[in-house]
């Protein structure tokens, strides 16, 4: 919730950046639902989010949810550096 507050946004972003060194990703926006624009939680909500994302092309995802693209790029970097 604090990630939605102006001061909390700074805290969330700083924590996000600090945890990357520990190989931990947290959403600067607070939670995945804030990134995807969904309000609900639970298994049905997760399925709805997965279906919505799978129906989008790469450009749509980059435009609507750039944090998803950043997360996957970070994961790719971890994989590349672990081998």
Main features:
single chain; 83 residues; mainly alpha
Can you tell me about this structure?
By secondary structure, the protein is mostly helical. It has one domain (2-82). Helix content is 67%, strand content 0%. It has five helices and no strands. It has helices at residues 6-20, 32-36, 43-54, 58-64, 66-82.
Question: What Rg, in angstroms, do the CA atoms define?
Answer: 14 Å
Beta-strand percentage range = under 5%
The computed structural class is: mainly alpha
SSE run: HHHHH
Work out the oligomeric state of the chains in this entry. single chain
Number of helices: 5
Low-pLDDT parts are none
How would you state the average pLDDT, rounded? Answer: 91
The N- to C-terminal Cα distance equals: 37 Å
Helix content: 55-70%
The structural domain count equals 1
- What is the approximate shape? globular
Largest sheet: none
**Total number of strands:** 0
Short synopsis of the structure:
With 83 residues, the protein is mostly helical. The protein has helices at 6-20, 32-36, 43-54, 58-64, 66-82.
What's the layout of helices and strands?
Blueprint: H1 6-20, H2 32-36, H3 43-54, H4 58-64, H5 66-82
Helix pairs in contact: 4-5
